[in-house]
Amino acid sequence: MYEKSLSKSVDVQAAIRSLAKGALGSASRDGLKLMELEFPPLVGGDESKSQFDDFDNIQELDRNKNWVIQFAPTIPSDLLGEANDRSKLWLIFPDLKECEIARIEWQGARYKESTYTTIEEATNFLGRSGGGGSKYDAPWGANLVGGLSKLLGGEKGDAGLLGDQSAVDSLTEIPSMNLFIQPGNGGPVEDWINCEKIYDSSPNTAQVVVNGALDKLRGGYYPAVFFPKLAASVDRYFKKFQSVLYLKPLTDKGAYGWLFRVYPEPWQVILQYANIDNKDSITVENIVILVSETRPDYNKAVAMLVAADAERDAKQNK
Q1: Residue ranges of domains in the chain
Q2: Are residues 131 and 201 in contact, defined by beta-carbon separation less than 8 angstroms?
Q3: How far apart are CA 142 and CA 149, in angstroms?
Q4: pLDDT in tens, 69-88
Q5: Cα(175)–Cα(90) distance, rounded to whole angstroms?
Q6: Separation between Cα atoms, residue 136 and residue 264, nearest integer Å
Q7: What digits encode the pLDDT tens for the residues 212-253?
Q8: Collapsing DSSP states into helix, strand and coil, what is residue 292?
């Protein structure tokens, strides 16, 4: 919703979680294992921000973390294996510090039913128990920071620079579903590589990536010449993901809208604009200008949006 005065008064993220619940349920029951949820996490509420506002990766990661923690309890238990065991839903944080913060901020019993872990812990555990033998691909500089933390920790052996290890749950069983919280996006590229390792060690586990910027990977944002391991992972793994919920803002030449999809429905390009009546009351109108079974090219979607907006203006000005 581009009209900020309205988006601040609406719990947009709750609506997105509701859509995601239905989409994830339908996709999982249809047998999909590699699923993507992509949406703007900062839209809605008192601190609503669009892509036109200033924000940093920390704010985005914080919102994605909170979104996933609130989303996890709503996932139907029948998606989590025959035992309907909610501990087999893993919330996979990008690092130990984020996991620790989540433990502190979300104390409710319903938020503790899922298993809290990290990309590193999940990669190493599944590499051992899944028989794949995969080992965690550490980001550049990780060993240096880890060594510094232990040095500063004195007798305790850890100054907590990387987070509190007690924040993660003990891993004992193969999960039924993994929710990855913003892997790679704004963090080390090794996060994405480790996501594939987790899948290879447990291929029957549903993998759900939440705002992992997979478009950047599939679109060649990271050149293969500089990131050969990541490029190989994209071709083998990330190009197989299906967008079960996708909401991406589109804008150009004063036209605003969205590229939208909720599984199993088709893709839509939506033109959005604000109507202001003679009492200065604002309402937002959405016009669907394209419905497609296949995902439209981004540039094509923007061009269609601009054309539809120009056509609307021309009709109004007659």
Answers
A1: 4-252, 258-318
A2: yes
A3: 11
A4: 999 999 999 999 877 789 99
A5: 7
A6: 34
A7: 999 999 999 999 999 999 999 999 999 999 999 999 999 999
A8: strand
